[in-house]
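Dear Dr. H.,

I hope your travels went smoothly. While you were away I took the liberty of generating a structure for the chain from your last submission, since the lab meeting agenda had it listed for discussion. I wanted you to have the full record in hand beforehand rather than looking at slides cold. The sequence, exactly as received, is reproduced here:
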Amino acid sequence: MDTVARIAAVLLVTVSPAPYVIAQGAESIPALLLRFDNERDLAQKESLLLTLTNQNASAGPALLRLAKSTRNMESRWMAMRGLAKLHYTASGPFLKSSLKSSDWVIRANAARALGDLRIRNAAAPLLAMFAAEQEPGAVEQASLALRLLDIKAAAPYIREKIPRFAWQTRYWLIQALGALGSDHDVPLLAAFLDSSDIQSATYAEAATYALEELAGVSFGPHATGATTLPPPETLVARAWWASHKDDWPHCDDCRRK
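The corresponding predicted structure, in token form, is as follows:
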């Protein structure tokens, strides 16, 4: 869903004429939006959106009008990303209503934009959307939005969804519970620390980071690049849980920093 835009870089040999060349080549907001909406190649479409948001800080109202009126669903969800990049919070009502779209990509991007824009009054519709959501991609983006908005009321829904989704979606849900859960969720997260294959090792990594956030424990620097499975910090997390699970959450040294 996140297509990487390929943007050509133009090298101007002489310095002094550059402002004149840029001014002459600049397109108006309406012209850029028209090209953006009509473009079918996603890479080119992304490039046009990037040009619009980078060069026109005041493009929010026009981009919102396009997002509301276009029949091109790719234009709509990409416009939502542009609205978030422009920090156009006036798009909040439109984004909240888009959480009920029949298109899951629209729902996913509306949720993510609400989170990125930190629109706090979106908690109720975002929770309702997340509770009913079945599409993995939309569940992922909504779980991140819930984290960004610190909506702790989402924790019961996250717990319910964790066993129903696998791979990347479960990873995102485990991370969300680490941010929004409570002490009572530590045993649930710790159950994912054991890994016997690639899939469970993925969950173990997510659980390690989630436990650090939820329990306030540091398991050491996070491994980067090629490493063993499970990574060293997960082994530390296993040892920590083995020595604390019988007393959790009433152990004296549960939350060493």
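Two observations you may find useful: Residues 1-24 have pLDDT under 50 and may be disordered. Residues 183-257 form one domain.

With kind regards,
E. W.
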